[in-house]
Every structure is written in C-alpha cells, then in structure tokens.
C-alpha cells in the first residue's frame, strides 16, 4: 500500500497553530489567541514536532524560545496563511465578530503623538464592548520593526503618523491635525509674537521624539530637510508624553499637532503658538497587513480605533 504523503496529514489549522505558538513563544498565550484550550494546543504542538522532526519550542531562561528550524519555517507558514486569506477571505466577509463573548488577544503598536487621551479612550471603548478581550499595547520604538511584525502577524494594527505610509500595507486615515509649537507661558514666542520668526524657531532649543530606527527622521524633520532647513534639537526622548512637562520648565520648543498640545495647556504653564515655518498637516493612520484584511475580528478592531479617533477629534 502506498504511504500517504506528509502533506495529507497537515491541515491549514495546524499551520495556524504553528505560526501562533512560535510568534507567541507560549502555548498558553497561543491558546488564548486561538480561542481554544492549552491541552488542545499542546496536542497540536506534539503533532507538529512529530511531523517536522524538531522540538520547535524549547525552554530558555524564564520563558520559551523557538528553535532555528522553527524560525526558518515561520516565513513559509506566514506565506501559507496569507495565501489562504487571499483565497478564502472574501467568503468570510459576512461573518460577524462576537465581541461580547470573545477572549481574543489584540496587539496594537502605537505612538503617543496623536492624543494622550486616545489609548485610554480606545481601551475603555473596547473593554465596554468586549469585556473578555485582552489588549497588548506596544510602543513604536527604534527596536521595533512594525512592518515585519505586521507581516508575521505578531501585531494586528499599527497606529502613528507618516509623511508617506508604507505602500505594501492597508491604511485608514484617522485624523488630520495642524502643526503648532508648544512653549512655556513665559517663552519669548508668547510675550513677543513678532520676535517669533522662522530663523529664531530653527535656532531655538527643541525637544523631539527618539527616531524609530537609526538614521530615521520624524515627519517634522523630514519636511524641514526637504526645505533645506534643520532645527536645533537638544533633547531626544522616547517618552513623548513627558515632553510637555519638560517644555513647561525650560525654554524648549515642542513641535507637534494641536490636538496633542491642547490637552496640556490646562494642566501646566504652557501656551500653543503658531509655527513660523510652514508645515503640511499631520496625518495619523492605522496600518494593517493583508493577512488580517478580511478578518472579522480585525475589521471590528479597526472600527473601534476609527470611532475613537473621530470622537476625540469632534470634542
């Protein structure tokens, strides 16, 4: 009797289990994300180990780590799932996401430039509609490759602002904001508006966010570079939410969106002033990968993000 090919023993769900276990690096977290039990995932992992001939996930320090073979197979698994989404995703458009009873884990990578109230409002909205859902919010940092993480389904959504968002990703515009300067209330730009020229703006001491990767520039400095200009950045900080307090106690200038700045003028001795260099509006987006484009849960999550942004903008 002819021996069955190994492919006959593999179904798409097994590929999904492999991808989830390796990206989560945890059987228990994979079970939550797959909305199943830990014993069920352990049984599937045992099958995978037998089929592949490798332990795939091994103990490492206080946690688990994928083997070299598992990491090599992660990209092919991603491609299989991506192709399956393209092939069958349109048939799932009518399916509803049962938010009220779901225990899914959503991972969102977000900057804190948009509005200090945005993430708290988003969490409140999601937890009200879906009390069993778990959220992991990751910072957009220099060490975080958000494009790769989206392609590997390690995150569901990325929220931030870009002059030109990556072309290979889906995007939804959340809001557009005016670029202004935030300064201390006794700053010369407040006391003497005519003194506040483009030249003095560029010469002033500025606080700016830490670049997302070495050599990168934010949208402010990208625009200035295009004009052949540069500003005097003396403080770089990954904690953008702390920048207003730094400004309130110094002569630093923070250049960002008006909506962000307005949240702090009532809390600290700060003022919003016009920027003497002309900037295009800041555009904030949510980005997602083709892998989750047709997902009912992904569509629901993106709707919560969009509604949160619009509600804050309308206040």
CATH superfamily of the largest domain: Periplasmic binding protein-like II
Rg over alpha carbons = 23 Å
- The shape is elongated
Q: Which secondary-structure class do the elements indicate?
A: alpha/beta
Distance between the termini: 72 Å
CATH topology of the largest domain: D-Maltodextrin-Binding Protein, domain 2
Task: Count every beta strand, where a strand is a DSSP E run of 2 or more residues.
Answer: 12
Count of separate structural domains: 3
- The low-confidence runs, each spanning 5 or more residues with pLDDT under 50, are 90-94
Estimate the helix proportion, in percent. 25-40%
Which strand order spans the largest sheet, edge to edge or round the barrel? 4-3-5-12-6
For the largest beta-sheet, the strand count, sense and barrel status come to:
5 strands, mixed
Strand percentage, roughly? 15-25%
State the helix count.
Answer: 12
Order of helices and strands: HHHEEHEHEHEEEHHEHEHEHEEH
CATH architecture annotation name of the largest domain: 3-Layer(aba) Sandwich
Whole-number average pLDDT? Answer: 87
CATH class of the largest domain: Alpha Beta
């Amino acid at each position: 009797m002819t021996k069955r090919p190994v492919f006959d023993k593999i179904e798409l769900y097994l590929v999904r289990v492999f991808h989830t276990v390796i990206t989560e690096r945890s059987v228990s977290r994979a079970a939550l994300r797959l909305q199943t039990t830990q014993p069920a995932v352990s049984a599937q992992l045992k099958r995978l180990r037998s089929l592949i001939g490798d332990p795939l996930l091994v103990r490492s320090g206080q946690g688990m780590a994928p083997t070299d073979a598992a990491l090599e197979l992660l990209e092919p698994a991603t491609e299989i799932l991506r192709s399956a989404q393209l092939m069958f995703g349109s048939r799932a458009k009518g399916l509803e996401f049962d938010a009220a009873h779901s225990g899914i884990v959503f991972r969102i990578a977000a900057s804190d430039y948009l509005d200090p109230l945005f993430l708290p409002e988003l969490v409140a909205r999601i937890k009200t509609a879906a009390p069993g859902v778990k959220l992991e919010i990751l910072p957009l940092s220099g060490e975080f490759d958000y494009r790769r993480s989206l392609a590997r389904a390690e995150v569901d959504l990325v929220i931030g602002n870009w002059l030109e968002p990556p072309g290979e990703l889906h995007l939804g515009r959340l809001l557009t904001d005016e670029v202004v300067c935030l300064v201390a209330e006794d700053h010369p730009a407040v006391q003497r508006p005519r003194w506040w020229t483009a030249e003095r703006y560029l010469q002033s001491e500025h606080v700016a966010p830490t670049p997302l990767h070495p050599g990168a520039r934010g949208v402010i400095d990208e625009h200035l570079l295009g004009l052949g200009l540069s500003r005097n950045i003396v403080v770089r900080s990954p904690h953008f939410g702390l920048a207003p307090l730094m400004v309130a106690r110094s002569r630093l200038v923070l250049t960002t969106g008006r909506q962000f700045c307005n949240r702090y003028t009532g809390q600290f001795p700060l003022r919003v002033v016009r920027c003497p260099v002309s900037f295009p509006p800041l555009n904030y987006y949510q980005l997602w990968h083709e892998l989750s484009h047709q997902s009912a849960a992904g569509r629901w999550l993106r709707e919560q993000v969009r509604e949160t942004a619009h509600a804050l903008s309308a206040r």
